Amino acid sequence: MISVYYFGAIALVLIGLYAILVKKNLLKILIGLSIMETGVNLLLISIGYVSGRSAPILSEGIGPSQAVDPIPQALVLTAIVIGVATTAMALSVAMLIYEKYGTLNIEEIRRLRG
Amino acid sequence: MGEASKISRYLYTVIVLFLIWLFLTASLDPQELGFGLLLSLIVGAFTYEIFTTNGLANLSPKRIAYAIAYIPYFLWAMIMANLDVAYRVLHPKRPINPGIVECRTVLKSDVGKLSLANSITLTPGTITLDVDGDRYFIHWIDVKDSSVEGASKNITEPFEKFLRVIFG
Amino acid sequence: MNALTAVGEILVLLGTFFYILSSLGLIRMPDVYNRMQTATKSATLGSLGVIIGVGIWALGTDFGSAAWLTKTIVIAVFLLLTNPISAHALIRAAYKSGIPLWEGSVVDRYREHLEAKEKEAGSPKNPDETPIKEGGVE
Amino acid sequence: MNELLIIIFAPLIAGVIAWALDIKILRELTGIVGAVIPLSYLIYLYPTIDAGKTIQYTASFAGFKFNFALTQLSWIFAMMAGVVGLAAVLGMASTARSSYEWLFALMSLTGVFGIFLSYDLLAFFIFWEVMTFGSFMMVLKYNKSASLKYFILSVIGAYAMLIAIGIIYARVGSFSFIQVYNAFAQDAALGMVGGETLFSRGEMAAIFGLFLVAFGVKAGTFPLHVWAPDAYSETNQSYTAMFSGVLSKTGVYGFILLYMLMGYRLMAEFGTFRSVPKFGYIIAFLGGLTIIVGGLLAALQEDIRKLFAYSSISQIGYILVAIGVGSALSIEAGIYHAISHALFKGLFFLIVATIIYRTGKTEFKDMGGLAEKMPLTFAMAFVAILSLAGIPPLVGFASKWLIFEAVISQNMPILGGMVFFGSAIGFVYLIRFTYAVWFGQRPTDLNDVKDAPLPLAIGMGILALLNVVFGIAPGLVAGELNKIIGKDVIGGTIWELDIGVGKYNGLLITIWLVIGLLVAAIIYFLGARVRRVPVTDTYQSGNPVTMDYNLTIRRNFFLPLKEALSFWLRISFDKLYRDIAKTTEDFADTLRNYVYNGNVQSYAWYLAIILLILAMWGV
Amino acid sequence: MNGQYAALLIAVPLISAFFVPLLKGAGKNAIKYFLIAVTALQTGIAALVFQQVYTTGQPIIVMAGGWKPPVGINLYFGHFAALFVLIVAVVSFLMAIFSLESIKVEPIDKYAMLFLLLMLGATGMIATGDIFNLFVFMEITAISAYALTAYNKTGEAAEASMKYIVLGGIGSSFFLIGVALIYGSLGTLNMAQIAQLAATMNPTVAQVGLALIIFGLAVEAEIFPLNAWAPDAYQAAPHPITAMFSAFVVKAGLYAMARIIYLMQDVGSWGSVLKLLVVLATLTVIVAELAALRQRDVKRMIAYSSIAQIGLIALAFALGTQSGVDAGVFHMVNHAIVKAMLFLAVGYVAMTLGGAEIENFKGLGRRMPLMAFAISVGAIATVGIPLFNIFWSKVRIILATLQVGYTWAAVLVLAASVVEAVYYFRLLHVIWFEGDGEKINENLAIGLMVLFLAALVVVIGIYPDYVWSLAQKAGNDIFNVASYIKNVPLMGVGA
Amino acid sequence: MMKRLLAIILLLIVGYWLAQGLAGVPFGQDKMLVGQYYLDNVKQQTGAVNAVTAVVVNYRGFDTLGEVTVLFIASTGVGALLWKRKKKRSAKTEGSIVLTTGTRLLVPFVMLFGTYIFIHGHLTPGGGFPGGATIATAFLLLYLAFITYEIPHRGFEKTEGLAGMGYVLVGLIGLAIGGYFLFDWIWQTWNFGTENVGRLLSGGFIPIIYTIIGIKVGTELSGIIDGMIKEEVSE
Amino acid sequence: MIGINVYLALIAIATLLSMYRVFRGPTTVDRLVAVDIMTTITTGLMVLFALYYGRMIFLDVALVYAILAFGGVIAFARYMEGGL
Ligand code: NA
Ligand code: NA
Fold first, then answer.
1. Distance between CA atoms of residues D421 and F140, nearest Å
2. In CATH, A1-51+67-112 is 1.10.287.3510
3. Which 3-state string (H, E, C) describes D440-452?
4. Nearest CB to D596: which of A22, A109, A114?
5. What is the pLDDT of residues F64-113, one digit of tens each?
6. Do B122 and C102 make contact, defined as CB atoms within 8 angstroms?
7. Domain ranges of chain E
8. Which of E140, E161, E176, E189 should one mutate to test binding to chain A, selecting the residue with the greatest count of A CBs within 10 A?
9. Could you report the predicted ipTM of this complex, rounded to two decimals?
10. Which residue of C113, D532, D593, E167 is most buried, as measured by CB atoms within 10 A?
11. pTM to 2 decimals?
């Protein structure tokens, strides 16, 4: 049986994708994207978890055999920052779009096609 | 109230920051202390101008004593407030009588006004909606007196006797 | 079990109670102003209880150290300072974004104040003319 | 540098130099040199080839092994290309207008040489492309829609060939003709005994079909001929001499290769009917249809360029019939006709080039009475007309006669009928050309027309001479052709062709003809003093010939024929292709607007659908 | 010779990008010349790396921080990376020069930084030997590409960038899920070690992980239908950037895809992934060619053409044979040259004549003969005429496709090529035989650049042997996973 | 509605597929290979107590350099896209005295805490990114409270650039001293702080890099905030 | 006494309860208030987790979280009243 963390992570990914697939407002789509990223990060973290072990900071009595995998945590740190960067870019592009098109409805933002 | 000298303001800022550092690290390791001092000096240099006008004058014994005395007083008020909240939340009829009232304060300093506002927010049935000069606009969950004087008497005055001393 | 853990746990227990109270208030109150009335206070007090409680509780454990207490105090003070500020900012936002008071509200002095101010100024004040104040706040 | 490479690349290099120089006269000279060099080398290498040797050359290049060989067969085709190419280049010296034309005309000549000298499929394909590209650029300069049509069909043909080659390569592991031949031969043998063959029946059909398309396009086989009339007419007519005379022969050459490399295998797979391989019938009957369609349409043209363009198509039909029949005799006959067609059609197009160069006119209605003004050109035309019409003792007769004999000897009356019909319709359009251009009343604006310029005249001269020489001494050609097969399929002497069931002696006929002409001349000169009447001053039934009458032969002369054929003329493959193209474009538009609809959400759905496919695929 | 200096290929663009803010006071032109200088330096280093790798025949393994793989992240400059990093640098250098003339929109300093980081990202994607690091470099590439796509700050540019962001975001999220699965199964992120252990993986995990990674990369690699962002981005981006997109950004994604596919060839479902990819690649070619057919905007038309060529490369890589990979790499090189030239010329024409609509190209042969010449050479090369470079690689791809037995794919791809021939034909006709106009003075530097690229096209077309031998070595680098594993000095963690 | 339904069905299938994949990677199981190596060797090889930090800065330093770059790109990109010849704050309502005063009191503390976070990166969770984000929050508060506040742009941009260069330079010094880019020469060559593991002055170049990152991230995020918060002023 | 697990569970429940308002609204400020409360409670939860795991270092995480949450809430609040 799949763990609740995995389940939550996949659920977040799917919820995010759902927002991207059905929401008409660009900001909601971007929020969907962020939710998806969050889900992925949660998944990464969950993958590195080892039952009964603690954070991989080898102080306060935690030794190498009592810590969880440090790699996914390191990866998630990177992934989070990348997510922030993407979101920042996306928001400024959205601002630009709003400035030029006066709308954030994706049905109307389609001057480029064909 | 005049502005204190830059050095005084800077030193005051550094002292406060270093104290916070001590609380954060709770360590007497010289490496920590040294870096704490260094960082306090650096951060203080960037921020003392917005942090304080009074500088070291804030550290007068009287003010500190009143500040310490204010803590239990305030906590008590806060606990009362929360029991009041508990009553209203848990009562099936939700007995409320809300509105926005105006109060006046005698406090002059900005920090004093902030403390008053926060105190009001955290105590029985009131939240500071806006402050304009000495006029406080307060959302009151159970309006007992909608006049300025009545409201002030109910809401601001209990705190002012402490705050006036602490912040002037 | 020692006194410190006992005191700490009691505080945590009380804090937890207020946390739940806070979220209930959030659900039960009729409008945003009254939700804030109930939720902010109990969440803040709950935090004080839980956080300081943890600090004290930790002192009584084998891994505890003074740092637990000092750090929790820093966190608690931070919340004590910021929670009313954010409540204030939020209620202002609620009011200024045009959310009406609950229909049972009895008085609105702030509306009167704003209207008087507008009449006096003739036009809304240009925010650009208010420069950042130099110097501290005391 | 190897002599084969010199033959192949001399024209291209000359073309690039001419293009880069871009100085009048110098570029013409360079171009001519570029055409002379390969021809000289081919002549120089004749003794070697005559001795039954092949000259081989292998180059490792671009990670492939390229094989070249000068065999008896390729020497004949290359000679044809060299001669007609030189004549065309001479013509271009008069008619070409820019260095652009020099570059691409010579590039296509390189392509042609490359095709004939390649000894592997890939080299063949590459030079095929080079030739196509060069000729395409020549057409592009003159006419967009003509070049587009030519281009699309050529590209389709080339890609068809590439796929066929690729399939062969995938199995054989080599492009070399020898290895491909061996593989197919082995496969054929295996197939006979019911063994596991390298290529399946379906693959053989596909390969054959693909090559059929590839070579059919280039040869102008019905129904892939639609590009040819426009392309031949919409370019420099001197170049068309080469285009129609030589380039189209690469298709013919391709069919011959097809026979050589995989004839056995195809026969083994698909069997024979009355000793003719079944796949050959396809080629032969397509050729027959091509004769008829090309001939009829030629008769209906109002533009001399178009007339000869359709005529070319029709003539290629003869060759395909011959090759399709596939007997030793018929293949030799086919090649023979390829040569004679190159010679007379090359000559025709140079004549057309001269007419256009001097008059600026292309339609019958604007012409007439040019014989008087352009006697030399008229003399050339006389040779060409006789040759095409298949009148002895010109080369056209010899080859047509051979084809007819070859077809009849295989007991194929329908094909024979088609060939005969082609000859008949050939007379029809030639008569019109003869009268409408050279005789009758001359429009007044043509009164100052001059005869052919020197380079063109030389070019025409070379071709006319060969038309006569090979007509009088057909054995010269036949002897070379026999060497391909390796036995005397066509017997006889230099002057005489003997195929057992019939004989044709060119010299004898010439002698009779000359005697006849002498008699006629004597009668003419000894006869009553005839009043010299200008061709324009003609009476008919006692009435002066009016311009209206004069025009009848020049304008819509074959209108009744057109009306009779109106039902068939409405069936236009050209239009069919156009409709297909239009449909494709509309479909492309719809697809583009539907797929790239501009909505980011749709695009996100594409991603989601791919995810779904991945999930469902169980990947 | 120790190859650690190859880390400069990462360090130089980075430090230069960080330096730009300090240069801001010196003016726009100073920044542009700085950009040229940095790309030139990068080209020099790349040439050095190229020279070392191809003379010694040994890859350069850069071990960041001195940690041996799989403990540390390593860069792998094998034959492929050495070749392509050089191409990235050279194209960047040319486009830096082009930027001098073509970039007028402010803020130039930001443009320069993003430009350098785009180059850096592609370099890193090609060089890295670590699957998560690949993700990081992919994001560097993608995010700078997002920003550069919108750089012109028109509505269209913002729209295009947004599409790119949304699709790229979905792609990278799923890529990361794939990485998570593979990491969860193997406990390592090093590509060589993944390849080594691939056979031991849980087959379901391997299937899902591989599929997701390919999915994520396919968005960057412009595989249909994940490429819907691309035409818009190509059209809206500043001209030099479009050239870079086509010349190396997409190729980095494509390469990464190929690399990972071949690393995972021991995975059970490998064959079916390839099959699916063959289908998608073929569709990419067909749809893109059809979409280009009646395109009125020449830049967009060439964008579609570029996508189609990418599809062809993807097809080659998806064949799963050495000859396919070699042909794909060869085509990558050729396409990089041709498309750099085309976008350079078309971009220059568009900025000179005020737009890339086909009407603007009327009479170009007379107005801007150099650009017309370059566009013609590019068009002819793309169509695959002998004596031009693409002919060789295209033929090789077709032959390789037929060798594997995907006759249908070869037929469809060639049918699409007919369509390609038609629209390029129309373009050529418009350029040379329609319209008229005064001759315009063409910029010397840009003229020299297009001539240089055109010369490359023809020289490779006439003498493909050298480049083909490079392509073979580079292809072997991708295909021969055993030697890849052998070359990476894995320190045996967990063994 | 149909679309929503389709989306849900599609997502459920995809989700099921992902779950199937994840089933092969059981939750909570020890799947470490390289990870265990890090845990076993981190203290001795890098001097860091926080293995995550060691992974981030030392073992996978390349990722982190890339991460820094990504954020730099975002800040540059936002700056490029929202660039206007003249920009200005467009706030209409002033922050009340509660907010302004609160901000004045909080900013020094928040900044100090930010530095605390990145300087302790090798000992505690956190490091350059959260530290930088914390510092940026201080600037955010200033923007929120004071409607005319602006960060010193020139200085920030230069700091950002210098910090980035600093990071690369540290790496290049590693290349010069130890022969490898991003080589931790402080720990591995100088053996500085070996007796201090668990205390502040240890962890090789981690504190240096985290300081650089902290400053860089702080200035970058502030720059992004600035870029987004302001609007064009028509001249 | 009762045990830390119970507190953790109860606080988690409180967090979830406040989520109700986040989704329910009805106004944006309602959601914001709920988020504010939620973050406050979550801060407490994190502190309690630090105790649960016996790892003081998590307290730093809680403080960072509180700071970022405060900044975020103020930002949204100011945005709502047009103060950006
Ligand atoms: Na709060
Ligand atoms: Na809070």
1. 94
2. yes
3. CCCCHHHCCCCCC
4. A114
5. 999 999 999 999 999 899 888 788 887 777 788 888 888 988 999 999 99
6. no
7. 3-487
8. E176
9. 0.91
10. E167
11. 0.91
